[in-house]
Amino acid sequence: MAVPVVFGVLFITFALARVIPGDPCRAILGEKATDAVCEKFIQDKGLDRPIPVQFAIYLQEIARGDFGVSFRTKQAVTEMIVERLPQTIELTIAAMIFASLLGIFLGMIAAYWANTKVDVAVMIGANIGVSMPVFWLGLMLAYVFALVLKDTPLWLPPSGRLSSGISVANLTQWWGLEPGHALYGLVSFLSNLVILNALITGNWTALGDAVKHLILPAIALGTIPMSIIARMTRSSLLEVLGLDYIRTARAKGLREIWVIFRHAMANAMLPVVTVIGLSLGSLLSGAVLTETIFGLSGVGRIMYDSITARDYGVVQGFVVVIALIYVLANLAVDLSYAVLDPRIRLD
Amino acid sequence: MPPSEALVRKLDEMLPRGSSLWVDVLRNIVHRRSAIVGGAMLFCLIVTAVFAPLIATHDPEAVLIGVENVKRRSPPCIHLLGCPPDQPQHLMGVDGNVRDFFSRMVYGARLSLQIGFSTVSFAIVVGGLLIGAVSGYVGGWMDNLLMRLMDVILAFPYLLLAIAIVTVLGPGLINALLAIGIVSIPIYARVMRSSVLAIKQMDFVLADRAIGVPPTRILFRRILPNALTPLIVQGTLGIATAILDAAALSFLGLGAQPPTPEWGLMLSEERNQVFTAPHLVFFPGLAIMLTVLSFNLLGDGLRDALDPRLRHR
User: Fold this and answer.
1) Could you tell me if B42 lies within 8 Å of chain A, comparing CB atoms?
2) pLDDT for A153 beyond 60
3) Of B151, B153, B160, which has the smallest distance from its Cβ to A322's Cβ?
4) Cβ–Cβ contact B160 with A under 8 A
5) Which value does ipTM take for this structure?
6) Integer-rounded Cα radius of gyration of chain B
């Protein structure tokens, strides 16, 4: 199932990049490039070959993990992925944690006190949350926490990843790895996950600073999924709470908290996990907007820049990686069903 | 009797007697507070959009330099709330190009509704009525091919795909709408396909087939009208997402172009001024949020009202 989808994604990205109007040569070398220069450029990049041949070559290269070189910066796309992806991963994971924890918690209290003022308040909040434009919420959060609450302990930075003057160690140097070492790429990737890096090297100043910078973007990005998760948890838990086995559990005198967490939530989590998995797509989309507002240079930002600059290779590389992450995450959600619900067997 | 109950009873009485599907649905909606709130908000929005020229105090694109004594990005000035009478009144202040912000907001409502309805109509016609219906009715390899294509579109984070499509077509409001329409096709195709699959098996369709009614007639005259309900619910909720996405594209500079009074664009033009002139960022975002909220509330109400399991409850 996942394989044809990945293949289709590769094809659509390839096709879209080829039909972008405009001349890639002049977009990269400048308007003044002569015809002779352009001809050589097109030959070098293989852009004069028939489209199917270009696609076949492209697939071959991807299979080898080679995403080509950026036309613009001459940097290898794989290298750019190693540099940019960690930032987006950090943001997405932080948003996901915020959305899941708060969403499940709010959904639980709304279901437990269903049809009371608590429930109504949570559901009004969830409806507003679902309707929230990510970019507006981001700007408003920045306004409140960076300006209105300035000089209070609640102040939070409105942009960037680390304050100036604070940096983290390069893990490849930390462990004395040379370029060309088998783990060099992986370690550079981990090194760019600032929070993980700070944890490994015990750099508590940088850790606190990075977390502080991540709070506002994560809230902005996580609000829509959080509201969806809250609604799903509520309806799913409400359904389960009406079942006989819950009445039995209560009748045999179990503590209420135990009934909810151990008995009810175990069965109510299944649809919630599906929603969490599905929300990954909207998180990756929202990352473009969030990164723009909070001045972060992650995947979303570079996708946007490369598309407008017609940097084919970079666009293709990142889209493939994102689609792979998405497909894998949905696969993980499917597999987690078997763990959460022993009645489901994956054969 | 609390006033809200009195209102519900009154609305209920206004509905015709009898129990056709749509009267039932209306009766159900009337009993749902969130749907009423959503409907009322939407009604205000439609009134604003229709009567925009009467409500707006200024021309939305008129630059007021030399016309009035106002400064760039000056905050709201409302005479009733104590703004000195010698200053010209601007309900939501003045933007960076010295245009009346309130008038731009009012005209923005027009654009927002047009955006919502046009993208969703496009997606419903192409995705629902063409791809979904054909896929469900014809089945076989055609169904397989179309649905796998839909899977591929769904495998992209939708905003990234929309950005890519706009880049291919060139920035602009129409292209942005087309991109959002294309990206949302799979949802309607899937919804429609599943209803068609269910209805195809029903006795009245089999009867039609037995007496030799041509397939296209069966599909368009017999099956489609019966399969529209879920599509309408999905469409109402889809308008909400479409408005959000169009605003996002405009915010990124890929949708509406200046000086169009589009809320997303207005927000993007003033976003660097969020610390100095927050009102210019606050109002457009709030308007987008309320518009999207009204469609979400109405869509949820419609879904509950149309859900046969919940009817007559």
Assistant:
1) no
2) yes
3) B160
4) yes
5) 0.84
6) 23
